[in-house]
Amino acid sequence: MADEEVPTPDTTPENPDDQPDTPDEQPEAPVAETATALLPNNAGFEVVNTTLEDEMRQSYLNYAMSTIISRALPDVRDGLKPVQRRILMAMSDLNLTPGAQHRKSAKIAGDTSGNYHPHGEAVVYPTMVRMAQDFSLRYPLVDGQGNFGSIDGDPPAAMRYTEARMSNFATELLQDLDRETVDWTDNYDQTRQEPTVLPGKFPNLICNGGSGIAVGMATNIPPHNLREVIDALYHLIDNPDATSDELMTFIKGPDFPTHGLILGTKGIRQAYATGRGSVIMQARTTIEPIENGRNTIVITELPYQVIKQRLIEQIADLVKQKKIEGIVNLNDYTDKTGMKVVIELKREAYPKKVLNFLLKHTPMRSTFGVNMIALIEGQPQILSLPQVLSAFLKHRREVIVRRTIFELNKAKARAHILEGLRIALDFLDEIIALIRASRTAEIARTEMMARFTLSQLQADAILQMQLRTLTGLAREQVENEYKGLLKEIGFYEDILATPARVEQIIKQELKFLRDKYGDERRTRIVPMEAEEIGDEDLIPEEEMIVSITRDGYIKRVPKETYPTQHRGGKGRIGATTKEEDTIEHLFIATTHHYILFFTDRGRVYRLKAYEVPQTSRTAMGSAVINLINIQPGERITATVPIKDYKEATGYLLLATECGEVKRTKLSEFANLRNNGLNVFDIEENDSLKWVAHTTGENEIIMVTRKGMSIRFHENEVPSRGRAAGGVRGIRLSEEKGDSVVGMALVDPELDLLVIGERGISKRTPFKEYRSQSRGGKGILTMALSEKTGDIVDAQVVDKDDRLLIMTREGITIRLRVDDIRSSGRSTQGVRAINLSDNDTVASVERITADKLPLEPPADPNAA
């Protein structure tokens, strides 16, 4: 049409009088008429009126469906896209079986493009490369020879350099193709036929998975273990209504060719039940020590589709940009024995922290988004695991039935011929005479068909008989072959009449695949569910010393900052404080603890310990108001470290400086707002000073500044709501200046240690403190004098514990409790720390024996 000359249409009207006087008065011809007039001879064409919008919509829809069906999505039956199926067909045409010699990839790609896939060998070759990569497919369909790429992301060699042939799995897909088991269709130029699907004895879709992006949809199916899949197919044959949960007893989850880990089964269950889900993959790593006290992180397996070289480059880039600290070297020791990437760390680096950072910021932890979409009868559908396996079994039933029909027809056709030969042998002389008397073969055939009631096929077979057929031995062979064919016919007919026989054949073929090709699972499924790696996971869990000053400055330092000293030492400077500022709180907490901050006005705030800035031993710290929304005029007076306060049980027992106590269930502190909550209705001249976490069966001891103490059971303190006030715990002395200086939980196996302002301290067994009723004056706990000063703190201690004593001027000393001898209630005690004339003890913190770090021998002269 493009080369033909288009004639100029004759626009002269039949009646000249109808011609307009001016061009502006020319009538507009209909579009259809104008288009038709432009077509030569106007024959064989139909002009349809349509809008551009409708035409674009229909054209794009046709394109989209072509992309979905003919390019992007695999068929649920054989798990192949058209280009993959055509590559295997081209290799089959070249007889490139597993035992054959490899052929150039360029030849295979060229034959595929020329005979089946009209999009060029440059498109075909990358597909064939992926089918040969053992790190892309769990069970490769192509056996490649040469450079077909690597897990490092190296590109494959050009197709003129590589060679290939089919793998064993490809031959299982093609088996029985020549037995009319599938439908065939014309290729793109109608010069030959190609199958619409392969017989597919190997469950390729679920075992090798697949991915593809079509128009408006995409598929992403993970690979699985053949042995597990066949076990599940066995179960599904016997239990057609099996659920995805039942099938998961056989198929544990995806099995990636690159090994690695899968975290949890929640995403797997969702994917198998609905066809969509997320599978969390993670690299297999180990932390190994090396010389000089350093550690390494060794990566031996990667998540599926993660390119090793790009991962190494990404880690190196993070180090270069100083987004991660602690890495000093990065080496790749991968060889033919396996993958090994070694990340060397600094001595002070925390391996778990570095590893968590890498898991969060690199593909070492990746998500495989499962989207099981495949073609069923030419239509894309999202499929659950039972649907995928059921579709495969349905296809195999159809293949076996069609194969059986083919074999049955073949056997019947041969039996038909043998029946004619048997007749000929029975009437041999007459047939020979008839043939000799006939002028042509056609006349002989007609006469035989008429006289002996033979078909044309039988008559032709008789005419083609050789003389050796006339021997007695040949006659016996005919009879034996005929009897054998009758048995085969009965066998095939029984299969077609009995569905259970078809199921049995499927099982036998699956068992053959399982025994021949089944292997162990590569990807290990870790029972724990993957959780988002938060800031806390990047912080090593270690014990810290947290201190708060009177003016509200807070800091944390490693516990090892303060070595143990003997009593009477001068201590070590623990903080540089502002003028007239002093240390008021000192406690031990791990970096992952929650810290509840209680203020003098009866409010509580919450913070994670790692959120407290870590500083040097002599630094002043950060203002608390920058970390929590403490109200103006409030001071932090008590802290309670809790590992997980939402799951913790028991009570919080609160005590004030004027001797009031209160008990509230810990569960009432589960939901804390950023601006805090009221927890104690404080009197005007009082302040909340102490809070302890109790079980509900503890005893309490309260110690006053003027040397008195009282011990009572916590059940005497009624449990009250969070915002209620308290009750009297101890009646203070009428002597001016008396107040409560300490409240603690009683442990009968331990001692009560008290310390005076001037550094004099003593410890007394609890057996010397009798239990009393709440609200009394108590009993004497320390004989006070000018040498001791008033009591400033009290702690419940064990002789194996350590004490951390801090003075108002920031001097800190850490000593053994056993260095302070046990004495009676009414004694003064011994000197625990030497103080300057203007300095006094501020607080004492107990460090329990089971939390002591490895520490060097004490140095009594340490400053």
From TrEMBL:
Its main location: cytoplasm. The active site is at residue 161. It catalyses: ATP-dependent breakage, passage and rejoining of double-stranded DNA. A motif (GyrA-box) lies at residues 565-571. Its EC number is 5.6.2.2. It is found in: Cytoplasm. Residues 1-29 are annotated as: Disordered. Keywords: ATP-binding, Cytoplasm, DNA-binding, Isomerase, Nucleotide-binding, Topoisomerase. It is an enzyme of class 5 (isomerase). GO terms for cellular component: chromosome; cytoplasm; DNA topoisomerase type II (double strand cut, ATP-hydrolyzing) complex. Residues 73-538 form the Topo IIA-type catalytic domain. It holds the Pfam family DNA_topoisoIV. GO terms for molecular function: ATP binding; DNA binding; DNA negative supercoiling activity. One of its GO terms (biological process) is DNA-templated DNA replication. Few gyrases are as efficient as E.coli at forming negative supercoils. Not all organisms have 2 type II topoisomerases; in organisms with a single type II topoisomerase this enzyme also has to decatenate newly replicated chromosomes. Heterotetramer, composed of two GyrA and two GyrB chains. In the heterotetramer, GyrA contains the active site tyrosine that forms a transient covalent intermediate with DNA, while GyrB binds cofactors and catalyzes ATP hydrolysis. Heterotetramer composed of ParC and ParE. A type II topoisomerase that negatively supercoils closed circular double-stranded (ds) DNA in an ATP-dependent manner to modulate DNA topology and maintain chromosomes in an underwound state. Negative supercoiling favors strand separation, and DNA replication, transcription, recombination and repair, all of which involve strand separation. Also able to catalyze the interconversion of other topological isomers of dsDNA rings, including catenanes and knotted rings. Type II topoisomerases break and join 2 DNA strands simultaneously in an ATP-dependent manner. HAMAP family: GyrA. This is DNA gyrase subunit A. The gene is gyrA.
